[in-house]
Amino acid sequence: MKNTIFSRPGLLSLDAHGDLVPDGEPGPHIGPVVARAGQLSCASAATETYFRAAAAVLAMRSDSSGPDMSAALLKRHYGVTGSIATLSSEVERTVEVDLPDGRRCILKTSTRPEAADSFRFQTSAMAGLEGAAGVVAPAVLRTSSGALMFEEERICGYLQTRIEGIPLHQVVPTPDLLFRAGCALARLDLALAQVKVLAADRPVLWHVGCWSRLMELEPYLPSGSVADRVRAAMADYLEFVEPQIPNVVWQVTHNDPSPFNMIVTGQRLGFIDFGDGCWSPRIQELAIAASHLVSDSALPLGGAEHLIAGYASVIALSRLETRLLVGLMRARQSALILVNYWRAHLFPADAQYIKKNVARAEHGLSILAPLDVALGEAAVLSAVSSSLP
Question: Are strands 262-265 and 150-151 parallel, antiparallel or unpaired?
Answer without folding.
Answer: unpaired
